[in-house]
Amino acid sequence: MPAPMMERRILLRPERLGGWLDGFAVRHGAVSHVVTESTVAFTAADGSLARVDLIWGPVVPDIPVPELVEQLTRERRVGALLVRRAGHAVGIFQGSALLTSEVGSHYVQGTTKAGGWSQKRYSRRRENQADHAFAKAAAELQRILLPVLGSLEAVVTGGDSAAVRAVLAEPRLESVAALVVPRKPLPVPDPKRVVLEAFGESYREIPILLRQPPE
Q1: Per the domain annotation, does 64 fall within a domain?
Q2: What's the pLDDT tens digit per position in 24-41?
Q3: Whole-number Å distance between alpha carbons of 141 and 198
Q4: Hey, CA dihedral for 127, 129, 135, 141, is it positive or negative?
C-alpha cells in the first residue's frame, strides 16, 4: 500500500507566486495545470500537487501560466471590514495601499463568574453593549463603502466571525454583503489603525494546499 501524501497549507504574497511556481517545477518536475471555478491545480511530474484557491472568483482557463499568474495576482480595489467586540475598522484598499479608513473602539464588558439572576442581568447588559457596538460598525461601513460600492471589486473581512455576520446582517448593507469574498474572516487582533494597515498585506495572501509524496 503506497504511503499517504504529505499535506500542508501555505500563504504566499502575490508578488512571490510566479517565482514560487518556477521553483515548484524545478523541485518536482514538469508541471501541468487544471482550472476549475474555485481552484487551479498545478501537478508536477513526481505527483506533487499545488492547489491554489481562487479567492477572487474564476479565472480564464486554458491560458499560459504567466498570464494565469497575472490574473491571480493583479492589484484590486476592495473594501475591508474588521470587527471584534472591542472595536471595528473600515477601509478601502488599492492593492496593499490603504486609501480611506475609519477606526472605532467599543466598550463591551468581559465575562463574569456570577450566577443566577445576576448572571442573566449581566449577560443582557453585555449583549446590549455588543449590539450597540455592531450597529456603530454597520453605520461606518454604510457611510464609507456604499457611496463608492460600484468602484469596488470585493469586500474582505477580518476578526470575529459572529461579529462580522452581525454587522453585515444590517438590511441597508445587503449590497455590501453581496460583495464579500466567500471565505472565513481572516484572524486579526482588536482592530486599530495599525491593524487595518497591516491587513493590506494579509488579505492579498494566496492560499495554497500542497500535497507531496513522502521523501
Answers
A1: yes
A2: 999 999 999 999 999 999
A3: 19
A4: negative
- Pairing assessment for the beta strands 206-212 and 87-94 based on DSSP bridges: unpaired
**DSSP E strands: which ranges in 29-94?**
31-35, 39-44, 49-53, 77-84, 87-94
Query: Phi, psi (5° rounding) for residue 25?
Result: -70, -40
Count: domains in the chain:
2
Q: Which domain holds residue 187?
A: 77-202
Phi/psi zone of residue 57: left (φ > 0), alpha (ψ -120 to 50 degrees), beta? left
Closest CA to 187 of 166, 156, 209: 156
Tens of pLDDT, residue by residue over 70-96, are: 999 999 999 999 998 888 999 999 999
The grid coordinates of residue 118 equal: 445576576
| Model confidence band, residue 102 (pLDDT cutoffs 50, 70, 90) | very high
Residue 39 C-alpha cell reads as 481552484
- Asked if the structure places residue 115 within a domain, the reply is yes
Which positions ≥6 away from 169 have C-beta within 8 Å? none
The Cα–Cα gap between 196 and 105 comes to: 13
With respect to residue 1, please indicate whether it lies within any of the assigned structural domains. Answer: no
